[in-house]
Each structure stands twice: as C-alpha cells, then as structure tokens.
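--- STAGE predict ---
source: upstream dedup step, 1 unique chain passed
mode: sequence only
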Amino acid sequence: MDQSKNIISLIEEMHEDFESIPKNISSKLNSIKTILNENGDISVKKNKCLCELDDVHEDNNVEAALRCQLWDIVSSLEQL
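--- STAGE serialize ---
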C-alpha cells in the first residue's frame, strides 16, 4: 500500500506544481486517487488506473513537463 500512497502523493504534487492542468487530465488524476483509496485487489485497481491514463498520452493539450510526470505515474502504477 505504500506504493499507492506514493502515487497519490505524486498526483497531489502535480496539482501543486502545474497551475493549469487541463480539466480532462485533472479529472482522470482525481479518479486515480479515488481508485487507489478504494479497498480491493491491487491488480484490479492498477488496471483501472492505467485505463484512466491510457488516452492521456495522445492529448495535445498536455505540456511536455506534465507529460513526463504522467509517465512517472504510469511507471509507478506498473510496479504495483
């Protein structure tokens, strides 16, 4: 569960570091936080979170630095 808390912490830092995160990405990040806080099988939660981020990498509204942090989250999720 420590890894889940680290991912939640990364998401919260992203909200602090970037003044204007596109609403669709902010919504997905909030969904991921909710999923990670739920009780249940970690592999199911991991797959739900990865599905939430699946189409984000194709979004043209994402600045490069934000995209790098999103990939850090994906990487952390894959390690769950």
